[in-house]
Amino acid sequence: MVQFIFILGSNWKLSLAELDICLRSTPFKGKIIDYSSNIAIVEFSNLINDKFYVDKLETLQYYLGGIQKIAKVSSFINYQTLKKSFPIKTIKFNEIKKERQKIKDELVTILDDIFPNIKNENIFFANSIYPNLYDDIYYKEVVLKHLLPFLNKGIRTILKEKGAIKALYYKYPQKNIDSGNLNPIFPHHVIKYQLLKPNRAEIVIGITEEGIYIGRTYTVDDPNFKKKIDEERPKREFKSAISPKLAIIMLNFLNIFEGRKEKKILDPFVGNGTIALFGLIEDFQMFGSDISKKKIDNTIENIKWLQNELELPPIPNIGHKFKTIDIKNLSKIYKEGFFDGIVTEPDLGPFFNEKPYYSDGIELMEVKLQPLYETIFKESYKVLKPESRICIVSPVINILDDSHDLRIDIENIARKNQFKPIPLITAKRIVNKSNKILQFNKSKLFSIIDTKKGQIVKRKIYVFEKE
Ligand SMILES: C[S@@+](CC[C@H](N)C(=O)[O-])C[C@H]1O[C@@H](n2cnc3c(N)ncnc32)[C@H](O)[C@@H]1O
Questions:
Q1: What residue spans define the domains of the chain?
Q2: Can you give the pTM of this predicted structure?
């Protein structure tokens, strides 16, 4: 069966969860059959039978917030062969040579799959290696220093033998290879070096505990597009806004992949409208509310800017879709079962420059956040359609005088209001790994943290379904 390599974002658990939700939907039905902290290997049930499956892959790439690239697998080399051809310690070189020849023979076949034409072509390629884990000593010492040069030179030689006029490869900075600190080329490099053209390619080498998957990149995310919208919109607040990537992932957790234009999605803490803007880009019918009129004005200004930038048709009645509402009055404004989904990051409390003391943290939790989350679920229950979902950020606060973080018992609040938690990752769908770092310690994972280094208030992502 044809397999695809999906390159995961930096929060690989979140990317994996988002991908799995997409693969449960009818248009993209499939399964993750293997993964590492950098890649997921996917088999589709039907997609590949479609004549225009590359177009579908592009749609999938566009829908996914947490996937950097998608490559089609041309070959798989098992871990035993890899370890025998590139051992940590070189003892019997003749045996190593024999094993490496097996890989070379495999490359001869793979290259005909990767390049539609080789003879008389000027070929340029970039080898991108995605290790099981970046901290892996085997990656730093063996893969980068021996496998990468072997592939660069080996592929170049084979291409020449197959009649290419020129065969050049992308040279990574030697100092990064020497220090064991090498990132494969970024998605924008794939665009810059035109690696989606027939005579040019990014060759992805994805390593998992099972072996190496080798394939060619077919689609890439356009990070500059999202960055531009996030950074150039007229109104933004760096401190309180979530990233475009997270906004898109949360929208996908609603599990709506068909008829998006008819689906009404609300962000009741819309702020400057990050979720609303990316919801519109991802084809949803977006609604937003906020206690602050200024924030609603900001969101409307941002949306009008977006429409102008992307030349989208104007949203009729924009003033009715984005309104000043206190969350406690939500169901007074919107009728029962009006929305198909809610995606939101509520007010997570003040922006802390330093960790708060336990007493301050617990007061914030009990006096402000706990009641706020109670209200959110009570009101959301009324305005959501049956069996529709809410994807919500919950705060996890780092405390100065306590080693335990403070968090809200959001699952309990949700259950009390007749919402059931939806697992983001289930052991049944995704095979577990033997490396502890790659394991999911529970058979069902109901939340995933999204945080940057040193962040005091971390975001925990949950999904609940109205019962
Ligand atoms: C963390 S910000 C949301 C930021 C937003 N995700 C963005 O990207 O701009 C929280 C928002 O909740 C709003 N807010 C606070 N209390 C509220 C309430 N009781 N009802 C509705 N909105 C409220 C604030 O005005 C603020 O805009």
A1: 3-221, 224-466
A2: 0.95
